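PROTEIN DATA CARD
Card holder: Toprim domain-containing protein
Chain length: 730
Origin: Streptomyces xiangluensis
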Amino acid sequence: MTTVAYTAIDRLRDVLRDLGEPTRMDRGDSFRTRGLCHSGDRPDTVSVRRVPGKVDIRCHKCDGDDQYLTAIGWTVADLYDEPRERGQGPSTSPPRPRPKPPPQKTSRARTKAKRPLRGETASYPYCDENGVLLFEVVRIEVPGQYKDFRQISADGYYGTSGIRRVLYRLPDVVKAAQAGGLVTIVEGEKDVETLVAMGVTATTMPGGSGMGWTDEYTESLKGAAEVIVVADRDAKGREHAEKVADSLERHGFAYRVLESDRAKDVTDHVAAGGTLDDLVSVDAPSERTDDQAEIPPTQLPLEFWNSRESLKSIRRLAHSKLLPADTTLGAIMARVSGAIPHTFTAESPMGRASLNLPVAMIGGPSAGKSQSARAARDAFPTPARLADRDALPIGSGEGLTEIFMGTVDQATGELHQKGPYKGDPVMTQVRKQIHHNAFVYVDEGKSIGDIEERSGSTLAETIRRAAMGEALGQTNATQERKRYVAPMSYAMGVLVGLQPSIATTLLKDSGTGTPQRFLWLWARDVTIPDEVVEHPGTITVPGLNASYDDDSPVAFRVPDEVAAEMRRKRLHAVRSGGIDDDELNGHEPVMKMKFAALLAIIDGRFHMTLDDWHLAGTLWTTSCAVRDDLVGLARREAAAARRAAEDAEIELATRKGDALDKAEMRREARLRLVLEHLASAGGRMSRTDLIRKFNSRYRKELPDVIERGVAKRVLRTVEEEGDWWVHVIA
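Structure generated from the sequence above:
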């Protein structure tokens, strides 16, 4: 029989496993764990290392191991590889190989968990195949302090000693496996819930990678057609995934080991716009390295930029000028939107859509918003159709309409009857639309809020209508003020720079649809390199060529599979009355059509592909993340304002209360003096004489003081001899 050396550090690992306590930084002969002798302690307070013949345990808070040994039910004798009898010295001989004994039961008393725990943010129930609860894993997060997990048995006590350890969501896993389905293994319960919300059967093990995968877990997957193991993108995550893969290999499972190339784990991967299909093999080279900054979901991922040469050129352009790539792209898209022929449209089962695009660049004063707009202007020459209407400042709703207006001579239908022009048509000057292109740039979005707050302003309404290519202006004014721009007869791009605190100007208008029509991008780029990037030169956009025939319509039709999905969603919206639609996301299909068409134009094509649509989806996801970030900021600012107002009210009430308390004290002191004067006068005195006893400054207070004494039943007043007399009540 083959035996192994079962040392004290091995026994300690077993004890901690039975207590549900994870270990960290485990290198075989050393690891760290939580201080069980300190409730709510950090997960690495206790350091454990193997030394010759024994295990050394040190709690950095206790500065020793006494309290920790008591907490796990050990004595000093248990620290040795060959347990010592009490009073026996340490052994100097190496440990004898022997069979691994079963885990020792500890004498530690069970502690009842008081729910909810401090900092408890989530609870994950672990059940057997029949759905019977075995234990829970509780997630604890105290912002700025620590994150921890506690295991609580079904009867409410800490620890899972003697309790069967199973996979998370085991009933669903067994059902999917027995049906020959796909099961995905991730490293934490939060990641499981992320995938389950996407319709994926997923699981993990209690304690995460620190507790080790067992063959019993693998047996639970019997029947699955394939198992996907998703590793966290770090050394520990890959090591854990390799151990799971080894077990799957031994049991003959078909499996793949994948990881994200844009985020640390599955939850962050999905938040960054990724799907399971985007995960890459752990053996595949990634364009990111571990020392690169992690790209937040509010920034376009590297996969977006690397998907085609036109986007790589824009990113190089931005980085060559030390600018954020996202806002540089947004500025270019807005300019292209206003510079292309107005006959360019996007088409879907819902009809035609203009390619007019408002873009909001969000960032602080020195983030590079203005420079991004300038870089977009320098990237390609201004086409003739945009001359004199390039980067116009915003004025008002009427001003936006006026951009397209002009004065022309028009025949009245009459002829000159005499003079040198006899027989010629009589002409008159009329105002009408004579332009079809405009690009509006607002360097500081505060002006939009200032204009919109004016009584009768139509700016927000005009931006909304222009974004959809609807008719602009008014026809019920005088001839001099009449403005009318026909639907789909113009191309307009709008670029707005906003500081985060001012962005609420647009966000608060969500009920009428203004923010839903914007592409939102942060002026932030964590991927900009330290090295100098070469300028890519002028960007060629064929659709901006002045020789292009503006009268020739170009329709960017969505791919057939996209059209089918859009039709299905549209039918559902009509049948349900749109009650399921998110207010801020109601314009998703139209906005993605615009994005996809403009990306195709920038790429030099006049038709939309499925790849354009996927890239438009990434743009939409990033835009929503930026917008949601700003919504959260607005809520936090509003909450802070409310708290400040409440604090001010409390402070005012406190000051008033203090003032009332002081007045009460003064009246009580006056009442005591009244009682003293009455006592010296035999218990009664006329009110007139009593008032004369006090300084003139206080006499006006005395009637109230006497009334106070009557209310407290220490005084009574009686009308006698033409005056009111005050008596002391014994």
